[in-house]
Amino acid sequence: MRTISKLYHLAIAPLLLFPPFLIFSSGAVAQNDALPDLLALNEWKVPWEGRPRDPHVDGSDDVWFCGQAGNYIGRFAPLSGIFKQFSVPPGTHPHNLIVDDQDHIWYAGNRNAHIGRMNPKNGDIRRYAMPEGVDDPHTLVFNSAGNIWFTAQNSNRIGLLNVDSGAVRIAEPQTADARPYGIKVDAQDRPWIALFGTNKLARVDPQTMAVTEIELPRADARPRRLEIDGAGNIWYVDYPGGYLGRYVPDTGKFTEWQLPGETPRPYGTAQDDKGRLWIANTGVIPNRILAFDLAREKFISESTVPSGGNVRHMYFNSEDGSFWFGVDTGYLAQGTPRK
Questions:
Q1: Residue 153 belongs to domain with CATH number
Q2: Which long-range contacts does 258-262 make (Cβ < 8 Å, 24+ apart)?
Q3: What pLDDT, on a 0 to 100 scale, did the predictor assign at position 31?
Q4: Which residues pair with 192 in a beta bridge?
Q5: Assign residue 201 a region: left if phi > 0, alpha if psi is -120 to 50, beta otherwise?
Q6: For residue 174, what is the DSSP state?
Q7: Which three-class secondary structure state does DSSP give residue 43?
Q8: What pTM does this model have?
Q9: Structural domain for 176, as ranges
């Protein structure tokens, strides 16, 4: 593992050829020790085909997930082991879902330009159509008012859906083909976005919808998912480069750590309530789940995903301290950190 720190050789910092407020250097410290396995993993085979992904736990501890390729929404009850399938409009291919405080299921209609709200009791769906030019809602996240920020990767747009009126406001990155991907909302109710088509993060002003782009230190970086810690720092994973990065908005500083192992490809992430960031390394099959201690700034655990395939998105459940994810090989999985 390589650590890249802006605190390295401060005396030569003025020589670094980066713009103001972008402080970065190439000092490296190796973390070569073998990592313990600090994660208990349980998996359940989904009874239908269709790439189960992006699970979310509701108020009754049921787990909802998207059957993206199979064009359905699924529900799994861990206590009974029972799965149930819910229909969505033809051609939807739901990519991501979230659950509100009334247990409505909100999903991204990735191939037919809508966001849907499903009643979990009867499966009824209300469709919220996207404005012209937004064809592929991708990843959803609530703001403090219960409205939904979302990305649209191939449309190169970021949107805000008012869940009461159905009105949609749209923001557009300055960079063409920026491919807005992962999204999280900070304590100031501002969405932060990983721009997977370029080496940038983005932030949107909720009032003006103006987009601010922040360039990452390496030109070939491609951030895919991100998390925001309690201090407001932005943690992102560079998928092709194999790095975990931290951006501090107050100072403009970047720090990056390379994932251990050969051909790391970090994808799904989940931040828990114990100061750890869990990262799916999809560069190896079967995938590995790594844990990074945010305070100690080091990787502390590595676990093998038994069912093998790619882990694209992870959801932390604050009620029991576990996190959930789908596996492309057709499984739902729950990771529970060992005491």
A1: 2.130.10.10
A2: 258/1, 258/2, 258/3, 258/4, 259/1, 259/290, 259/299, 260/1, 260/31, 260/35, 260/290, 260/299, 260/302, 261/288, 261/302
A3: 56
A4: 184, 203
A5: beta
A6: S
A7: strand
A8: 0.91
A9: 3-337
138, 156 in Cβ contact below 8 A? no
Tell me: cis bond preceding 266? Omega within 30 of 0 counts: no
Q: Which of 294, 313, 292 is nearest to 39 (CA)?
A: 292
How far is CA 290 from its chain centroid? Answer: 15
Which stretches of the chain score pLDDT less than 50?
Answer: 1-30
Query: How many separate domains does the chain show?
Result: 1
Give me the pLDDT at residue 327, please.
98
Across 323-332, b (16+ Cβ under 10 Å) vs e yields bbbbbbbbbb
Looking at residue 33, its pLDDT comes to 72
74, 94, 73: which is closest to 82 by C-alpha? 74
Span between the terminal Cα atoms of the chain, in Å: 25
List of residues 6+ apart from 157 with CB closer than 8 A: 133, 134, 151, 170, 171, 172, 180
